[in-house]
Specification:
The protein is about 80% helix and about 0% strand. The chain is mainly α. It has one domain (about 1-70). The radius of gyration is 27 Å and the shape is elongated. The relative contact order is 0.05.
Length: about 70
């Protein structure tokens, strides 16, 4: 009786691990497919167009850093 229970446990473990393996494999394939699809229909932005930092942003960041250092946190 104990041997039958052990065999059933091992079978259940194998089925569970197999199901998780199949699910994760499908998830990786779906993610790779979606990544290729997005790259095909949405071109990569050229550096300089959206990557430029305006003077107002630099001033705001500088002020925030100065305030942080002044407050001593």
């Amino acid at each position: 009786m104990s041997s039958d229970l052990l065999v059933e446990g091992v079978q259940l473990m194998a089925v569970g691990m197999g199901a998780v393996f199949v699910f994760l494999t499908l998830l990786v394939l779906a993610t790779a497919f979606m990544s290729r699809l997005v790259l095909r229909f949405q071109p990569v932005a050229v550096a300089g167009e959206e990557g430029e930092v305006r003077d107002e942003e630099v001033a705001a960041i500088t002020a925030a850093i100065a305030e942080h250092r002044r407050s001593g946190r």
